[in-house]
Amino acid sequence: MDKNEKLGISEPSPVKRVVVYTVMVLLVFCSAIMVVFQVFEYRHDYRELSTYMREKDDLNAEWGRLLIEQQTFGATAQIGSRAVTQLRMFSPPAAQTAVISLPMTPEQKH
């Protein structure tokens, strides 16, 4: 008497073994296909994320340039108003302005 017969366990039939192995091979194959699909999706999403990150960096750089430009234009008006209020500076009328021109040297005439 066999050990399996003593325990009441019967040996599976060869057809049952083939079916179980076939199902297991199909499950492994499906799992492999899903892994390939997930890697493809990951690479596609990563490429898209990289594009968005580059665009974000470009927009941040442009925003910084615009802030500097805005501060520059604001500083010009502020300098003019401080010159008038604190230093009492003003633009002279046309009657009080004079244009001075220097005589040309011989090298400049050519």
From TrEMBL:
Keywords: Cell cycle, Cell division, Cell inner membrane, Cell membrane, Membrane, Transmembrane, Transmembrane helix. GO terms for cellular component: cell division site; plasma membrane. InterPro entries: Cell_div_FtsL. This is Cell division protein FtsL. GO terms for biological process: FtsZ-dependent cytokinesis. It is found in: Cell inner membrane; Cell membrane. The gene is ftsL. Part of a complex composed of FtsB, FtsL and FtsQ. The chain crosses the membrane at residues 20-40. Belongs to the FtsL family. The keyword Transmembrane helix applies. NCBIfam families: ftsL_broad. It comes from Acinetobacter baylyi (strain ATCC 33305 / BD413 / ADP1). It is a single-pass type II membrane protein. The keyword Cell cycle applies. Essential cell division protein. May link together the upstream cell division proteins, which are predominantly cytoplasmic, with the downstream cell division proteins, which are predominantly periplasmic.
